[in-house]
Design goal:
Elements (H helix, E strand, L loop, with lengths): L31 E3 L2 E3 L5 E2 L2 E6 L16 H17 L6 E5 L22 H21 L3 E5 L7 E2 L4 H15 L9 E4 L6 E3 L5 E2 L3 H19 L6 E4 L20 E6 L11 H11 L1 H4 L4 E5 L25 H11 L2 E5 L3 H5 L22 H11 L21 E3 L11 E5 L2 E5 L5 E2 L4 E4 L5 E5 L24 E8 L2 E8 L3 E7 L7 E4 L8 E4 L5 E5 L4 E6 L5 E8 L9 E9 L2 E8 L5 E7 L7 E2 L9 E8 L5 E8 L5 E11 L2 E4 L8 E3 L27 E4 L7 E2 L7 E4 L14 E4 L10 E8 L7 E8 L4 E8 L2 E8 L2 E7 L4 E9 L4 E7 L6 E2 L4 E2 L11 E8 L6 E8 L6 H4 L14 E6 L16 E5 L5 E4 L1
Parallel strand pairs: 4-5, 4-14, 5-6, 6-8, 7-9, 8-11, 11-12, 12-13, 13-14
Antiparallel strand pairs: 1-2, 2-3, 9-10, 15-37, 16-17, 17-19, 18-38, 19-20, 21-22, 22-23, 23-24, 25-26, 26-27, 27-28, 29-30, 30-31, 31-32, 33-34, 34-35, 35-36, 38-41, 39-40, 40-52, 41-51, 42-47, 42-52, 43-44, 43-51, 44-45, 45-46, 47-48, 48-49, 48-50, 53-54, 54-55
Helix pairs in contact: 1-2, 2-3, 3-4
Length: about 950
Amino acid sequence: MKKLKRILTVLILVLFKINVMGWTGMPMPGLHVDGKNLVDTHGNKVVLHGYAQTFSPWFNEEGTQWTNYDVQGCLDYNQGIIDSILAAGWKMNFVRMHMDPYWSNTPGCTGRYEGEECFDEARFIKYLDEVFVPMAEYAISRGLYVIFRPPGVCPETIEIGGVYHNYLIRVWSIVSKHPVLKNHPGIMFELANEPINILGPDGTYGSGSQGHFDNLKAYFQTIVDTIRSNAHNILWIPGLGWQSQYQGYAVNPVDGKNIGYAVHVYPGWFNSGEGYEPFQQGWNEQVQPVADFAPIMVTEMDWAPEEYNASWGKGITGVAGGEGFGANFKKITDDAGNVSWLLFTSPHLLAQFDGIPPAEGEPYTFLNDPEACPWPVFHWFQEYSEVNFPRPEFQYQSRSDNGDGTYTNPLIFADFPDPDVIRVDDVYYMVSTTMHIFPGATILKSYDLVNWEYCCNPLEMIESNDCYNLDGCDRYSHGQWASSLKYDNGTFYLHFNTLDEGSYLLTTSDIEGSWTKMKLSNSYYDAGLMFDEDGKIYIAHGIDNIFISELNENFEEIEKHQVIFDTDLVKPGLEGSHLYKIGGYYYIYATYGGWPAYQVAFRSTSIFGPYEQQPTYFNDDNIHQGALIQTQTGEWWTLLFYDKGAYGRMPNLQPVTWVDDWPVIGENGVGVTTCRKPDVGREYPVTVLPTNDNFRDYKLGMQWGWNHNPDPSKWSLFDRTDHLRLYTVNVVSNFLEARNTLTQRIFGYHSDTLLSHATIKMEIDSMKDGDIAGLAVFQDPYAYIGIRKNSGENKVIFSHNGTVESGPVINDSIVYLRAVTDYNTGKANFYYSADNTTYTKFGSELDMKFELTIFTGNKFCIFNYPTIDTGGFVDIDWFSTENSFSENMYYDTSYNAYNKAAITLDSLYCEADTLIMLTGSVESLDLTALYVCPAWAITIG
């Protein structure tokens, strides 16, 4: 069995290639760091290529173009350079912008020019607005991501807490707070330029020991933390030795998200003057250990024969794998696979490039000599423009964050009912009801209570019995509901109840890991758990008559007391209890359910009462049932839901103020629609819950859930990689009985004009007679458009709650099916296509409802069921919620898929027999994971 050692952060090797879409107008989605790669919003690997630009008279053709702090002259010249470079045909997609100290230094200052000694904060703020921000905005408008570097260059020696350290903190604090720059998806920060030596823990200045790197990590960690208190832009961290030394970061990397490393490379560095092998060895020693876990950005690099005196680096292009610098630099970075880089040659020279070789007998120039950098790099950048470039954002994205410090309800425009929310440190977790959908009990996580992402679906199944397996009976409108989520002493607890089986408790110490399920001996209706300060466990539960039970450490009931009586209620239907201890009171935070629904609180100074009811309850737009939550800054909020028709019950976030120790929801008791975001101490990026799927992952995305328990042997992401294969399970008579129906919530939008789409690309060659496969909108009633195979023919059919219309024969192996729903009207229509361009409407219009017979919002469903015999299957290439979707528009289509053997562990071993460590020392241990696939082994460092 062949072993291939790989770094653990790379589970699957993905090679990207796509036909170029044209560089003008190339999309610029927000990028982020994912493991060792820079990726776009779809997970496509991105490698950037560009140039550097400095805004000062000297660097703009030695003062011949503008001078004397002429802001408009600077802007006109430098914006013209951008236009000229792009007009010359350069396939650039980023620019490194130097905030030159020309603008931030006190005029006439005789101290060190390069930053700290002559720095004038007021001037820096002024020209940040007048020069640097306008230049960044212009570059972005021309399709260039921007990397800012601070004014000047590091002194030869730096130290933690030193003058230059404090200077950088001041600079980045200003920049990262700027309303245009902070969190801008097109702007990144390179934290310093060319540190050389740092004061180490041994009292010496140096760059070679781990101690020096540990201090360098601490040095930049402070700056990173300063920026992160304001913004989440991608950060590029420099190394020592003029940004040539990085090996110590492999032992002690900078902490945080969206972190990469900024490297400089010139002829003669990394042994590059001695041919390919020494060059590669130098890179492997200094940079590759970091490139193994984080993306690399080469922010200075060029070369040319010395005779031209037109580049910083003096060398020749040479031949890859042989002599010379340029071609070997390209080979090394290409082989690394995650290195972005630029050409540091003066931009006005790049603007003069015309791509015309010299006529016969004419001498070479700097711009057309193949041994100087412009000529080969121009053509290399042409090649790079066809691979690893960012794809456009999806257009149909449901979000509540308005991007201006406010949000708009519904918080999530989809069916996430019965929310319970907790905060653990700086992370908020929300659980919701999923009823008969598995895996279920969906938990989302957020850092600001507004932007949510999937965390886990901890409930694999409730029971494996006939009804949950759709074998002669079902659990529609039953299953998991009204969960209580709590965290205590390192453990997460999730209680839920079912109408048929009673109560269950899920527990874990790792919320995104595996959960343990335990069936409780008692059943607790609409319950709220609470861990009291004295270690006791209580649960509030019931409808109309509310009880509190004390539980022991095994969650068995010790005693039970009725604390609220139906004779004291405002109206019938009191339920959805959440139990809290806040200040000197115990609170039962509950809802009067039904229609209309109200939210109300009860309180007592004793856990078992007596409880008094809040004098005024919250009665606004049927907003009810949920959780109270306090932010890190002491603010109080409540996350409830409201019934919004066919799409389901949607989370709604309301501020809470406390008046006479009662929670008052909304503003003066009136619910808010648009409101300022909660103060959680800092800002976080906008997130969007995923809906599109091209089934490239080795597991289903967390947006998906099966209708009842699936048969895992009858679906696969491996049998045909890059596709979801759905086999027929057992012969049934209708859609409601079909097992392995895959569902996804329907999302609406904060717009009256956007409709909700679902489209699938389905291959139907392997269907058997009697098979029906397609796309549904599911509640009561339901409807679907699909393909039915009959006597060897594949026909389009439409079913409305079992009433079937038959359509044309599909002679191709591929069919596209679409459902379009309208939140405002509650209507759904269905379409089919042979080419994904022209869609034909078919079947009657569905009038969507929210009925308690199903008790979840309408869902899009992909299904395949047999009516005669099993054995057939369909392959789903992709599912999209876009109005217009093609896979190669959003994803790299040269995807080299994994297989099941590539993620199936065969053995795990360590080559070292012993490891001897001294107290306070750092050693490495390599474990090798050998996978069943003969080409896969992963070394874990």
